[in-house]
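Is this the right way to post structure tokens for a design question? Let me know if I should format differently. Anyway, here goes:
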């Protein structure tokens, strides 16, 4: 079966932007009569039929897509690499397509659902990128009920009716555990994220499974990705009897904070404690010793998510797409246990 023709295909044929094609097909101002005629002619030639998703941009004031994220602290948003680079990748891709990004930070799920309802009623955006998928997430069903096209970032989505883009977190976490086991570590603690998040459950499960298979004593401690939490949790871990010889942190901010605590307490890194961070950043590379990390192309990840949402708006069927798995980058913060 041949692939369904999309507005992006027509844009390439005509030599204009995808938004110009949308304006022409929907009879909106913003394109010349000549461009409109050429777009309509190509659409007839290739048998393009705009469906509900493709028409979702009609009425959107700026040809925009929406992105909501849980509001971080002012200190965290300035340094946390995941949000910053994901947003950058989304913005880069949309700008290349002459489209805008409507970004909102929210406190909780209730506020986020209110934002979606307003966006839908006001036709502010043609579709949304949904981040921080939860294990029992009401947002996917709510977006479907609103008829607002969406792509889940960090799925796979809980059903096959929504497009998602995701990374194999389990494989990455297991690789970090194998690295520590190869160095001789037999007691490792994972400083995890909020338990409600779907990727936290995946990573926790993979960590425990990998440690059990390799004969490693495993402990999981909850935190919230902030530097303050990384400081507090690390101090508690290193003050307890029978402390681990390695700690794996679920983001770069907590890992850098943990390194500072270890140095303050006189625990050598890596001689007395090995540290691994999930996500890489300039912080991880600037500290001494530089941190061993699980690194992925977050800007590329954001751009990939934006392209998939544009495909959905073009009428592409739902699908789950796996992005690149985070790769282990070994630096000075890991070594044999002292």
């Amino acid at each position: 079966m041949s692939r369904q023709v999309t507005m992006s295909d027509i844009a390439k044929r005509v030599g204009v932007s995808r938004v110009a094609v949308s304006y022409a097909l929907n009879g909106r101002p913003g394109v010349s009569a000549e461009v409109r005629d050429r777009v309509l002619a190509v659409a007839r030639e290739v048998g393009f039929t705009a469906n509900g998703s493709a028409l979702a941009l009609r009425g959107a004031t700026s040809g925009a897509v929406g992105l909501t994220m849980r509001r971080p602290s002012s200190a965290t948003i300035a340094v946390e690499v995941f949000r910053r680079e994901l947003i950058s990748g989304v913005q880069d891709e949309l700008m290349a397509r002459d489209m805008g990004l409507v970004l909102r930070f929210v406190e909780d799920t209730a506020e986020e659902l209110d934002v979606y309802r307003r966006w839908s009623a006001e036709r502010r955006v043609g579709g949304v990128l949904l981040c921080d998928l939860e294990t029992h997430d009401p947002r996917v069903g709510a977006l479907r009920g609103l008829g607002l096209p969406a792509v889940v970032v960090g799925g796979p989505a809980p059903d096959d009716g929504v497009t998602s883009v995701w990374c194999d977190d389990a494989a990455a976490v297991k690789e970090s555990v194998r690295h520590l086991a190869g160095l001789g570590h037999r007691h490792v603690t994972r400083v995890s994220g909020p338990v409600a998040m779907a990727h936290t459950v995946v990573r926790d499960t993979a960590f425990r499974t990998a440690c059990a298979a390799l004969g490693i004593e495993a402990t999981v401690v909850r935190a919230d990705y902030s530097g303050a939490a990384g400081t507090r949790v690390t101090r508690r871990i290193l003050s307890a009897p029978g402390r681990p010889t390695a700690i794996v942190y679920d983001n770069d901010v907590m890992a850098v904070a943990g390194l500072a605590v270890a140095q303050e307490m006189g625990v050598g890194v890596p001689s007395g404690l090995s540290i691994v961070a999930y996500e890489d950043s300039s912080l991880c590379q600037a500290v001494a010793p530089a941190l061993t990390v699980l690194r992925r192309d977050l800007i590329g990840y954001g751009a990939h998510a934006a392209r998939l949402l544009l495909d959905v708006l073009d009428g592409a069927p739902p699908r789950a797409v796996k992005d690149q798995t985070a790769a282990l980058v070994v630096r000075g913060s890991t070594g044999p246990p002292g």
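Format looks fine. Someone answered above. Worth noting: Residues 169-295 form a domain with the Rossmann fold fold (CATH 3.40.50.2300). The longest strand covers residues 64-70.
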